[in-house]
Amino acid sequence: MDKTNLLLVEDDPNLGDILQEYLNLKGFSTQLCKDGEEGFDAFNKDHFDMCILDVMLPIMDGFSLAKKIRAINKDVPIIFLTAKALKEDRLEGFKIGADDYITKPFSMEELQLRIDAIMRRFNHQKQVQQDANTDEYSIGQYIFNHVQQLLTLGEHTTKLTTKESSLLKLLCQHKNEVLSRNYALKTIWGEDTYFTGRSMDVFITKLRKYLKQDEQVEIMNVHGKGYKLIA
Prior knowledge:
The chain is an alpha/beta fold. The protein contains 8 helices and 12 strands. The chain has 2 domains: about 130 residues, Response regulator (Rossmann fold), CATH 3.40.50; about 100 residues, Orthogonal Bundle (Arc Repressor Mutant, subunit A).
Protein backbone atom coordinates (compact mmCIF):
# COMPACT_ATOMS: atom_id res chain seq x y z
CA MET A 1 0.00 0.00 0.00
CA ASP A 2 1.38 3.43 -0.96
CA LYS A 3 2.29 5.78 1.84
CA THR A 4 0.30 8.97 2.38
CA ASN A 5 2.50 11.78 1.04
CA LEU A 6 2.50 14.88 3.27
CA LEU A 7 3.76 18.39 2.55
CA LEU A 8 4.81 19.97 5.86
CA VAL A 9 5.68 23.68 5.78
CA GLU A 10 7.03 24.86 9.15
CA ASP A 11 9.70 27.55 9.71
CA ASP A 12 10.57 26.51 13.28
CA PRO A 13 13.45 24.09 12.59
CA ASN A 14 13.08 22.19 15.88
CA LEU A 15 9.32 21.66 15.55
CA GLY A 16 9.59 20.92 11.84
CA ASP A 17 12.25 18.25 12.32
CA ILE A 18 10.35 16.64 15.22
CA LEU A 19 7.08 16.57 13.26
CA GLN A 20 8.74 15.16 10.16
CA GLU A 21 10.48 12.41 12.14
CA TYR A 22 7.32 11.51 14.09
CA LEU A 23 5.08 11.38 11.01
CA ASN A 24 7.60 9.29 9.07
CA LEU A 25 7.78 6.85 11.99
CA LYS A 26 3.97 6.59 11.85
CA GLY A 27 4.12 5.46 8.23
CA PHE A 28 3.72 8.73 6.34
CA SER A 29 6.12 10.11 3.74
CA THR A 30 6.77 13.71 4.84
CA GLN A 31 8.58 16.45 2.93
CA LEU A 32 9.57 19.42 5.12
CA CYS A 33 9.88 22.95 3.74
CA LYS A 34 11.03 25.99 5.77
CA ASP A 35 9.07 28.82 4.09
CA GLY A 36 5.99 29.41 1.93
CA GLU A 37 7.86 29.86 -1.33
CA GLU A 38 9.80 26.63 -0.84
CA GLY A 39 6.52 24.90 0.04
CA PHE A 40 4.84 26.13 -3.15
CA ASP A 41 7.78 25.01 -5.30
CA ALA A 42 7.59 21.55 -3.70
CA PHE A 43 3.83 21.34 -4.27
CA ASN A 44 4.35 22.10 -7.97
CA LYS A 45 7.00 19.40 -8.33
CA ASP A 46 5.43 16.46 -6.50
CA HIS A 47 2.07 14.87 -5.65
CA PHE A 48 0.87 15.35 -2.08
CA ASP A 49 -2.12 13.74 -0.38
CA MET A 50 -2.26 16.46 2.30
CA CYS A 51 -0.67 19.82 3.16
CA ILE A 52 0.16 20.83 6.74
CA LEU A 53 0.94 24.54 6.76
CA ASP A 54 2.14 26.84 9.52
CA VAL A 55 0.31 30.17 9.25
CA MET A 56 3.22 32.46 10.20
CA LEU A 57 5.81 31.70 7.52
CA PRO A 58 8.61 33.82 6.04
CA ILE A 59 8.53 35.01 2.40
CA MET A 60 4.95 33.73 1.89
CA ASP A 61 2.55 33.17 4.82
CA GLY A 62 0.46 30.04 5.20
CA PHE A 63 -2.80 31.64 4.08
CA SER A 64 -1.22 32.97 0.87
CA LEU A 65 0.38 29.59 0.23
CA ALA A 66 -2.97 27.82 0.75
CA LYS A 67 -4.67 30.17 -1.74
CA LYS A 68 -2.05 29.35 -4.38
CA ILE A 69 -2.39 25.62 -3.67
CA ARG A 70 -6.19 25.87 -3.88
CA ALA A 71 -5.88 27.60 -7.27
CA ILE A 72 -4.08 24.48 -8.53
CA ASN A 73 -5.89 21.79 -6.55
CA LYS A 74 -9.26 22.50 -4.95
CA ASP A 75 -9.51 19.09 -3.25
CA VAL A 76 -6.21 18.33 -1.48
CA PRO A 77 -6.78 18.43 2.31
CA ILE A 78 -5.10 21.30 4.17
CA ILE A 79 -4.40 21.57 7.92
CA PHE A 80 -3.20 24.90 9.37
CA LEU A 81 -0.83 25.05 12.34
CA THR A 82 -0.83 28.33 14.28
CA ALA A 83 0.28 29.91 17.53
CA LYS A 84 -2.77 32.17 17.35
CA ALA A 85 -6.18 31.19 18.68
CA LEU A 86 -7.96 34.22 17.23
CA LYS A 87 -11.41 33.57 15.81
CA GLU A 88 -10.66 35.81 12.81
CA ASP A 89 -7.65 33.70 11.87
CA ARG A 90 -9.63 30.47 12.15
CA LEU A 91 -12.41 31.90 9.97
CA GLU A 92 -9.87 33.10 7.42
CA GLY A 93 -8.37 29.63 7.28
CA PHE A 94 -11.71 27.93 6.72
CA LYS A 95 -12.72 30.50 4.08
CA ILE A 96 -9.60 29.59 2.12
CA GLY A 97 -10.64 25.95 2.31
CA ALA A 98 -8.88 24.48 5.33
CA ASP A 99 -10.01 21.05 6.50
CA ASP A 100 -8.72 21.59 10.03
CA TYR A 101 -6.95 24.14 12.22
CA ILE A 102 -4.65 23.17 15.10
CA THR A 103 -3.45 25.69 17.67
CA LYS A 104 0.06 25.33 19.11
CA PRO A 105 1.07 23.74 21.36
CA PHE A 106 -0.49 20.42 20.34
CA SER A 107 0.42 16.78 20.86
CA MET A 108 1.87 14.64 18.08
CA GLU A 109 -0.88 12.10 18.71
CA GLU A 110 -3.59 14.72 18.19
CA LEU A 111 -2.08 15.75 14.85
CA GLN A 112 -1.89 12.13 13.71
CA LEU A 113 -5.51 11.46 14.71
CA ARG A 114 -6.68 14.53 12.80
CA ILE A 115 -4.69 13.53 9.73
CA ASP A 116 -6.16 10.02 9.87
CA ALA A 117 -9.73 11.34 10.28
CA ILE A 118 -9.41 13.78 7.37
CA MET A 119 -7.86 11.18 5.07
CA ARG A 120 -10.63 8.67 5.86
CA ARG A 121 -13.24 11.29 5.03
CA PHE A 122 -11.40 12.43 1.90
CA ASN A 123 -10.89 8.87 0.59
CA HIS A 124 -14.53 8.01 1.26
CA GLN A 125 -15.74 11.08 -0.64
CA LYS A 126 -13.40 10.24 -3.52
CA GLN A 127 -14.75 6.68 -3.63
CA VAL A 128 -18.34 7.93 -3.63
CA GLN A 129 -17.52 10.28 -6.54
CA GLN A 130 -15.91 7.42 -8.44
CA ASP A 131 -18.91 5.20 -7.74
CA ALA A 132 -21.25 7.94 -8.97
CA ASN A 133 -19.57 7.61 -12.37
CA THR A 134 -19.75 3.81 -12.34
CA ASP A 135 -22.43 1.95 -14.27
CA GLU A 136 -21.91 -1.42 -12.61
CA TYR A 137 -21.45 -2.62 -9.04
CA SER A 138 -20.50 -6.04 -7.71
CA ILE A 139 -22.69 -7.20 -4.83
CA GLY A 140 -21.34 -10.59 -3.80
CA GLN A 141 -22.18 -12.86 -6.76
CA TYR A 142 -24.58 -10.29 -8.24
CA ILE A 143 -23.82 -7.67 -10.88
CA PHE A 144 -25.95 -4.52 -10.66
CA ASN A 145 -26.16 -2.09 -13.59
CA HIS A 146 -27.95 1.00 -12.28
CA VAL A 147 -28.17 2.67 -15.72
CA GLN A 148 -30.00 -0.31 -17.25
CA GLN A 149 -31.64 -1.05 -13.88
CA LEU A 150 -30.65 -4.71 -14.10
CA LEU A 151 -29.63 -7.06 -11.28
CA THR A 152 -27.92 -10.20 -12.61
CA LEU A 153 -26.97 -13.47 -10.93
CA GLY A 154 -25.53 -15.98 -13.36
CA GLU A 155 -28.03 -16.31 -16.20
CA HIS A 156 -30.91 -14.83 -14.21
CA THR A 157 -31.61 -11.11 -14.59
CA THR A 158 -34.13 -9.01 -12.66
CA LYS A 159 -35.40 -5.71 -14.07
CA LEU A 160 -35.66 -3.16 -11.23
CA THR A 161 -37.96 -0.17 -10.99
CA THR A 162 -36.42 3.32 -10.95
CA LYS A 163 -36.77 3.69 -7.17
CA GLU A 164 -35.49 0.16 -6.51
CA SER A 165 -32.47 0.93 -8.69
CA SER A 166 -31.87 4.32 -7.03
CA LEU A 167 -32.06 2.81 -3.55
CA LEU A 168 -29.76 -0.11 -4.42
CA LYS A 169 -27.27 2.33 -5.96
CA LEU A 170 -27.15 4.33 -2.70
CA LEU A 171 -26.65 1.12 -0.73
CA CYS A 172 -23.80 0.13 -3.08
CA GLN A 173 -22.15 3.53 -2.70
CA HIS A 174 -22.17 2.96 1.08
CA LYS A 175 -21.47 -0.78 0.95
CA ASN A 176 -20.43 -2.16 4.35
CA GLU A 177 -21.21 1.25 5.87
CA VAL A 178 -24.39 2.71 7.35
CA LEU A 179 -26.65 4.43 4.82
CA SER A 180 -28.55 7.10 6.75
CA ARG A 181 -32.31 6.63 6.53
CA ASN A 182 -32.88 10.40 6.42
CA TYR A 183 -30.28 10.85 3.65
CA ALA A 184 -31.79 8.06 1.54
CA LEU A 185 -35.32 9.42 1.90
CA LYS A 186 -34.36 12.98 0.98
CA THR A 187 -32.17 11.82 -1.92
CA ILE A 188 -34.74 9.51 -3.52
CA TRP A 189 -38.15 10.68 -2.25
CA GLY A 190 -37.28 14.33 -1.63
CA GLU A 191 -38.63 14.33 1.94
CA ASP A 192 -38.50 12.38 5.18
CA THR A 193 -42.06 11.71 6.32
CA TYR A 194 -43.94 8.79 7.84
CA PHE A 195 -45.38 7.83 4.45
CA THR A 196 -42.11 8.03 2.50
CA GLY A 197 -40.46 6.06 5.30
CA ARG A 198 -43.02 3.27 5.01
CA SER A 199 -42.58 3.33 1.23
CA MET A 200 -38.82 2.88 1.56
CA ASP A 201 -39.32 -0.02 3.98
CA VAL A 202 -41.32 -1.77 1.25
CA PHE A 203 -38.54 -1.23 -1.28
CA ILE A 204 -35.92 -2.52 1.18
CA THR A 205 -38.01 -5.70 1.59
CA LYS A 206 -38.13 -6.11 -2.21
CA LEU A 207 -34.36 -5.66 -2.55
CA ARG A 208 -33.76 -8.26 0.17
CA LYS A 209 -35.93 -10.70 -1.82
CA TYR A 210 -33.95 -10.02 -5.00
CA LEU A 211 -30.61 -10.56 -3.22
CA LYS A 212 -31.51 -13.63 -1.15
CA GLN A 213 -29.86 -16.15 -3.50
CA ASP A 214 -26.41 -15.13 -2.20
CA GLU A 215 -26.09 -15.94 1.49
CA GLN A 216 -23.06 -13.62 1.75
CA VAL A 217 -25.22 -10.60 0.89
CA GLU A 218 -27.46 -8.94 3.46
CA ILE A 219 -29.25 -5.62 3.97
CA MET A 220 -29.19 -5.01 7.72
CA ASN A 221 -31.36 -2.64 9.72
CA VAL A 222 -29.21 -0.37 11.88
CA HIS A 223 -31.52 0.74 14.69
CA GLY A 224 -32.08 4.49 14.80
CA LYS A 225 -29.72 5.13 11.89
CA GLY A 226 -30.57 3.38 8.64
CA TYR A 227 -29.40 0.38 6.63
CA LYS A 228 -26.16 -1.40 5.84
CA LEU A 229 -25.53 -3.46 2.70
CA ILE A 230 -23.09 -6.20 3.68
CA ALA A 231 -21.37 -8.02 0.85
